[in-house]
Amino acid sequence: MELLLLDSSLQEWASGLFENSHYLGPFLVLLLCGIGLPLPEEVTLIGSGILLHQGKVEFVPITLVCSAAILLGDTIPYLVGRRYGMSALRWPIVRKVLHPERFVLLKRRFRQHGNWVVFTFRFLPGIRIPGYFSAGTLKMPFLRFLALDAAGVALSVPLSIWLGKVFGSSIEELEGQMENLALVLGFGIASLLLILYTRHRLRKREAELARIAAEEALAEPGESDGAA
Question: What is the pTM for the complete model shown?
Answer without folding.
Answer: 0.67
